[in-house]
Amino acid sequence: MLSKRIERLDYPIRKYNALARSLEEKGEKVIYLNVGDPLKYDFRTPRELIEEVYHAMMEGHNYYASSEGVRELQEAISFKEKTWNDVEIEPRNVLVTSGVSEGINALFAALVNEGDKIVIPDPSYPLYISFADFYNARKVFYPALEDQGWIPDTDKLRSLLDKGTKFLVLNNPHNPTGAVYPARIIKEILDIAAENDIPVVSDEIYDALVFDGEFVSAAKVASPDNIIIDLNGFSKTFLATGWRLGYIYLKGPEEKIMQIRSGILNFLMTRLSAVTPMQVALARFARKSPHHLEELKRRLNERRLYTYKRLNEIPGFHMPVAPHGAFYAFPRVDLRMSDEEFAKELLVQEKVFVVYGSGFGEKGRNHVRLVFLPPIELLDEAFKRIERFMRKNLNA
Ligand SMILES: Cc1ncc(COP(=O)(O)O)c(C=O)c1O
């Protein structure tokens, strides 16, 4: 009945949602630490941005937009990239997507044939693995080094790339590890890609959420030969996960990026357009100074430091370096069971929902990912439950 393609699709972050819901239906209070959505806790979309949606709707911006996005938003994204990340991009090289998620799908749809080799970080945000499976690509993983703060092993990466590689995925700041890559590492990766004429897909959705170190966009340090396919969006840094808006921008040799642009746009035409009034609202809001970021980062930083301290106090949990960016912790856990069993048992026994590390790749084995988004009191309750679970199960 079902396609082989859909049977290959797996999304570990939401895999145990039904189990969590069934526990809630029995009256249990589940603490959700699985999904990277600040709005599920006490963060709110900036009021001014919401008001812009109302104005946009009342002004009549309720039609299908063009498939590449509202022109004013393409221009505002170009402005945002210049002012936030010191990157120069032509507005016409920006394509607006329904979230980075759709951007990843569009990218695979436009570029990947069955059997094509794509190179992905290990561990990786799962959607890159899921879409590689969906489109039957050949996945090759380059490892991140946990003892060096989850920085990619560039020697290994060099040995994995060849001229037949379709693209290389970079994700900085990194989900699930919270690593923020130094400029030197990004430059090294870009040089390896340029030597082999391979496009670099750079997912920078957490660009402004950096607490230690400095974020450097791949496009900022790229050489003129690099082909950069940058993915970014409004879910996290504009606190608008449910609006489903993101973007792809392209930078590099004109002929090559025009070809990629037309392939991706061809796919985007099939869904007509991304949501119009929100695009108009973001076009206006993104031109202003991003005042909301200060408060967002201050609160996240408090929760990050608390999480780092508390997790290291739990027997069997190890996290030598605090996450430097994004809002995830990715500790190693000493267990007598697989990380997937651990995550499931923790949910069943203590009603704390984390994601099993092997869902992010081989290097994620014996790890779990949890968000440090909830207020301290809720994090505290979650850590107490995890500690109780560990004391019960560590030597069982
Ligand atoms: C690295 C990364 N890329 C892409 C996404 C997808 O974001 P969205 O589709 O909301 O833009 C996420 C969401 O968690 C992410 O962590």
Automatic annotation (TrEMBL):
<feature type="domain" description="Aminotransferase class I/classII large">
    <location>
        <begin position="29"/>
        <end position="386"/>
    </location>
</feature>
<dbReference type="InterPro" id="IPR004839">
    <property type="entry name" value="Aminotransferase_I/II_large"/>
</dbReference>
<dbReference type="GO" id="GO:0008483">
    <property type="term" value="F:transaminase activity"/>
</dbReference>
<dbReference type="InterPro" id="IPR015422">
    <property type="entry name" value="PyrdxlP-dep_Trfase_small"/>
</dbReference>
<dbReference type="InterPro" id="IPR051926">
    <property type="entry name" value="Ala_Aminotransferase"/>
</dbReference>
<dbReference type="Pfam" id="PF00155">
    <property type="entry name" value="Aminotran_1_2"/>
</dbReference>
<keyword id="KW-0663">Pyridoxal phosphate</keyword>
<dbReference type="InterPro" id="IPR015421">
    <property type="entry name" value="PyrdxlP-dep_Trfase_major"/>
</dbReference>
<keyword id="KW-0808">Transferase</keyword>
<keyword id="KW-0032">Aminotransferase</keyword>
<dbReference type="GO" id="GO:0030170">
    <property type="term" value="F:pyridoxal phosphate binding"/>
</dbReference>
<dbReference type="InterPro" id="IPR015424">
    <property type="entry name" value="PyrdxlP-dep_Trfase"/>
</dbReference>
<dbReference type="InterPro" id="IPR004838">
    <property type="entry name" value="NHTrfase_class1_PyrdxlP-BS"/>
</dbReference>
<protein>
    <recommendedName>
        <fullName>Aminotransferase</fullName>
        <ecNumber>2.6.1.-</ecNumber>
    </recommendedName>
</protein>
<comment type="similarity">
    <text>Belongs to the class-I pyridoxal-phosphate-dependent aminotransferase family.</text>
</comment>
